[in-house]
Structures are given as C-alpha cells and as structure tokens.
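Notes from hallway chat w/ T.B., transcribed later so I don't forget. T.B. wanted the structure written out for a chain they're using in a teaching module, and asked if we could keep both sequence and structure tokens in one place. Agreed to drop them here.
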Amino acid sequence: MADISDIIRRARAHAVARECSLSTVSRKLFGNGMRLEQIESGQTSIRVDILERASERLAVLEQSA
C-alpha cells in the first residue's frame, strides 16, 4: 500500500528531474494542481483507492523520465 509521505517525496523528486512544478505533477496524479500541497499541509484528506491510483500513475511517470 502506498504511503502519502512517500508519494509526496517521489512527486517532488520527479518534478525536479523533469524540471516542472509540483503542481504539474499533482495535476497529472490527481487532476488537481493543488492536491499534493493540500494533503501535505493537512487541508484535505485522501481516500486509499485514490492514493493507490496516484501511486500507479506516478510509477508510470517515473518510468518515462
């Protein structure tokens, strides 16, 4: 099962590697450019199934880098 702190860490690393913003990665993972920041700051929560789907999408993005 994916861990949100791991996804945030990986998303930040991917943003740096691809020279794009975290909001761009967030949009690709969640369809919302602010979602990663909102989750990290505790402004919103996330369902487990959405977290798993985001982890799978991130894995695909990481492979294409």
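Follow-up for T.B.: Residues 4-58 form one domain. Might be a good example for the class.
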